[in-house]
Amino acid sequence: MKKMELFALEIDETLFYNETIYYMKMPESWRNFFNRERTDRFKLAFKVEPLGKKLKSIFPEIVSVCSNNKVLLDDQPWLVSTKPIHSSYIKHLTLGWLAHLKDYSIPDLPQDVKDSELVWVSSTFGEVHKFIDNYQWVPGMAAVKFCQESKFLDLGNELREELKFYHVIFNDKHECISNPIRKSHRHDPFSYVIRFALKTRGGNADRAILTVSLGTRRYLSDVQIKDGKCYMRSGHSCSVLVSVQNPYVMNPDRSFSQLKFERRPRNSSFTAWESALDELYWDVLNGESFESDSLLANPKFYSDGDGEITAYVVNNNLFAGNSVKAGIGLPEKSGLYNLAKGFLTDYGARELQLIPDISLRGMNDNRFPIVVPKEERLTIEIYSSPEMFDTVKMELSTAQKSIENVIILNEISDSNFRLNSDKEVTVELVHCNPESITSELEIHRYKDGSIAQEKRINQIVKQLSKVEQPNHSVLALVEIEEKGKWRDGADPKKAIREGLKRTGRLSQFIHPLTGDEKGDLSRILNAVLDLFNDYGLFSDNVNKVNASGTLLSISVIKAGNKYLPAISRLEGTDLSVKLLGNDRWMTLSEAALKMDESKFLDNPRRKNKSSEVFKAFITAEIHSELERSSGQVIVLINATLRNGWLGAIGNTKIQCDRVPYLNERLVNEPRLRFIRINATDDVPQYRIIIDDEMNRFTKALGVFKDLEGIYYGVGGRPNAWKGIANDATKFSSPSKLLLQQRAVEYIPLGAENENESDELALLADHLRRLGLTYDKHTIFPYTMRVLSSLSKYITGNEDDYDYDAEFDEEVEMDSEEDYVEVKS
């Protein structure tokens, strides 16, 4: 029998209580500075959190920062460090940041702020643990201790590699990053990454689990600023790991700080440091300023580490190409986890029991024939070159080995086809000239880029209003260059999608032909099947779903800084959607076109009623469904909604034998069941072991159940991930894409017995196979995933909901105010 080993250990924070630490309180004058600066009687003008987070990223010895108002009101420990960092560094960085907040220089600050004294106090974790956040210091202490000595990584096949690890705070997470590895001069450097995080588990929140996540981080080696041009894309900040020689007095070891820079409209330089503290870092620790452009003009010089400055620019998706592909091999994951596990168990942490596979019942793995709601006629307008149109038509009407050797469209006449579906659906393919809608936006003509965007939207609406509209649904496939090919602000995709939406068309983009026959075919098939997904068509797997009632799936769709509560309903093969502010159930395609008419909410905060409105919305719909139907009502809900939206599904609140408390009637409703679905980094990484032999692991799929009643679903691999041997490693084959399926957590709530709980978990897993695009599983059940995919009809952005690069492409997004992870 297959068994799963989670990459996590049960840990008691008292294991570190005797470790010596140093803490610093914030000087009274600094606390008064924050307390004086207010926008009104109740709200501070400046937050303490950005300062603390940045100090922690610059000085990884700082394992905990108190960033909330307690440090201002109660004089609690502010910084906790494993070493007493030279106070002048902390002072100069903080004064520079405070001056920046007021938009003046340090000499202009109040005298008492400038004269403040910083004092480190020696203590132990046992003495101060009540005042500091164990979600920070426990993984921080584990990372610091792990990095104290070099480690030998066992990669199998008699290959062992000695590695030195460095403790780094990356995006506010404690990581151990290995010394960079460069296989040959043809390859970019990369590091192994071990990330520690303290988590609690749903239904047993008193049990502290230290998760161990393994991945890689790739670095830039190719020049990105050359001949007066910069090849870095805009959109997000880029991280760089920096070490200056001897950053701390008498400290022989290197210490790496995470700084960030971003692309800016060119003045004197192409890029700029993201924040004042990033820029101040150089003045304080390096003694002089440093231009971020230098890192892109000669990245190899700084990554070689021969000078005073060592810097590794993280090669995320802001740069084109990388000779080292994403992912990490199974032997590397296993070897790294064995290193971490051995170290932690020596400290007293406890291994978790292996989890058995319960997925004894198989499921249909066929996507075709496509399941459609009714007989109808569809038109697909293809805005493309003639070559692309001919290729699309040919590929869709030819049997394709990659999709079960079936034909998607059977030709009736030159432009008319019969869809490979369970009911009669005819599809007309129409070629349209793309030039008038796909040219870049005329941003040079307007100071405000939104004007150029609105002009394109109106142009599309005007153009299509002159075309005779058929009395059936029209979908659009648009050939267009990828994001990196456009000037900043000139990419027309968002305007195209909005313009087509206003004319009643769902849309999908496809990149131009490249000459790579296999790659071009894959993009064409996925683009067309994505269109069918958006329209609400299912794979044949929907006929194998074993649900004794109605399925409701609940999500909140993010659209910029606004949020839209949404519910999908699946009865047999009938899918419908309801959005907040719209009184009726709609088809999926109708919902996409009607999103502008819905009611968007602000992010939940103490001062608004977003969570109350959300709870009232979903409660009313659950009540209505129970009254409308006589069978079970099974509610699938995204675990992230416990963060501000619905506290009733938090880890401390849920109990497996009862549904979440929404009101008195529902908690006692015998026909109601919930399944909490979690695909965040709360869910540990894993390895699947065959026959209990610890040296034999596989990429098998299945549903695994632990003793707590928590289930972990591992889906099958898409075709693109196949063909890689289980013993392949990034170390030996850096140019191979090495990806592993993500485990998704299912927690059934309210089941009468263990058998029913098993059935609910298997149902959630089966629902991940209903989509047309992917040949195995999506991460979320289809009925939840389609709600997330609706966001592109508001934001215009195409997101990949099913790819997890395990740290490779990590770019920190700007966090929403007060939208924080609930540690409960």
From TrEMBL:
Residues 8-372 form the pPIWI-RE module N-terminal domain. Residues 560-795 form the pPIWI-RE RNaseH domain. It holds the Pfam family pPIWI_RE_X. Residues 423-541 form the Prokaryotic pPIWI-RE MID domain. This is DUF3962 domain-containing protein. It comes from Paenibacillus arenilitoris. The lineage of its organism: Bacteria, Bacillati, Bacillota, Bacilli, Bacillales.
